[in-house]
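Database export, one record per block. Field names are fixed; values are copied verbatim from the stored entry.
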Amino acid sequence: MAGSLGNTSTADEVLAGLDLTGKRALVTGVSSGIGAATARALVTHGAEVVGTARDLAKAETALGAVREAAKDTGAFELVELDLASLASIRACADQLVNQSKPFDLVIANAGVMASPFGLTVDGFETQFGTNHLGHFLLVNRIAPLMRAGGRLVMLSSSGHRGSDVDLEDPNFSAQPYNEWKAYSRSKTANMLFAVEFDRRHSPHGIRACGVHPGRVDTELFRHLGEGGLDGLVAMVDKGRAQQGLSVSLTKSPAQGAATSVWAAVVAGSDEIGGRFCEDCSVSPINDSEARLGDIVGVRSYAVDPERARALWAKSEEWVGETFQG
């Protein structure tokens, strides 16, 4: 099956024939979309999954398929986590650590996109604070629970191509706020975190990577305003048509979850360690300005080891904790 996987593959197709019994996974942001699809696919194939959600009541209404699958195959547990609150993150991490149950997979799926300017309760720009710093703190606090052979999958995005991180002004204090630039910076940060986490933990047999799930019709697009996702698709496809390209693909949540589970379970550890993946494959470095091709690749600044170390050091300062690895 691996040779036939691509941009239209689903998570179940990626996991076809695999038995994940005995594997334990953490998936953040399971209340809808890709997170729910990821959790359902893992549970269906026998894994024990811990899912996180900010609003537990909302999550329960979206997790019927996951709960149903857990009756016959794996197991599922839901825990509360608000990635925009360091206190909530620490409480969630403490709960998981106190259970003393190891993880084989951690899939950092939750996130926000193109939101109006705002600050988290701890004073960080919302997208950077939620998408990067929230996961940085959570993952590092539960890292001791990860088994040798384990994997961390960070949901980055092709949107990282819009901007490198700004280590001096992450909160847009000295520059005009742009919601897309803020999103791009947070997604670059997700990838850089994966690079440095992989460097620190690969000697212990734990690997990390970043993935682009594709454009998936989920609640992530709720801040786009008039025209919403349809307007964005129309703009993209107009540009593609001018270049003689076919229309772009909007994936289902099951297709959006495919690369996450591929990187977490199927791909070779040396193949994905510290790399950027999309459409169930590892992407090349691509610093061209072209944005409308079928494979966008990863910008070199998003996988730069020195940049990754610098972001890690700054992130420790911002969250007020240091982590060994």
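Remark 1: The longest strand covers residues 146-155.
Remark 2: Residues 2-224+251-317 form a domain with the Rossmann fold fold (CATH 3.40.50.720).
End of record.
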